[in-house]
Amino acid sequence: MSPLIVLVGPMGVGKSTVGQLLAERLGTGYRDTDDDIVAAQGRTIAEIFVEEGESAFRAIEKQAVREALAGHDGVLALGGGAVLDPDTRALLAGQRVVYLSMDVEEAVKRTGLNAARPLLAINPRKQWRELMEARRHLYEEVATVVVATDGRPPEEVTRAALDALELKEA
Predict the structure, then answer these.
(1) At what angle do helices 15-26 and 154-165 cross, to 10 degrees?
(2) Strands ordered across the beta sheet of 145-148
(3) By the number of CB atoms within 10 A of the CB, which of 17, 56, 114, 141 ranks highest?
């Protein structure tokens, strides 16, 4: 068993929204590894970061992604930093991966770059740019297709992803 589609991209790009729309259009289930982590840990991702640090969170995330890739056959959204792990990137090889991209101005509009995002707590624009400089090539490495989300409503992004993957709606 493996997912029909895996979504990757930065925080706030719309993976959850587009993922749910894709699942609906394809008549399949939707799963988000961030939701899996919150449910299993009984606390928010921000709380895990504060209480245990980023490296502990990444270990939890790596396991959640491994389990989801092995146990879900619908649309799967991964957390923004999941691609940092080389083992996770290896597991994504051969999967149908959609990288949802956006620029910093779009990120500001969508997320407000707020404090609920633990990696963006101080100087959010600068932090977001640095995160993207560190991650963009990793998103591109695992991607089957790249779909820009800037200025596009979720329905249009969903259609573009389906078209790029040459998938038909259920």
Answers:
(1) 60
(2) 30-32, 75-77, 5-8, 97-101, 145-148
(3) 17
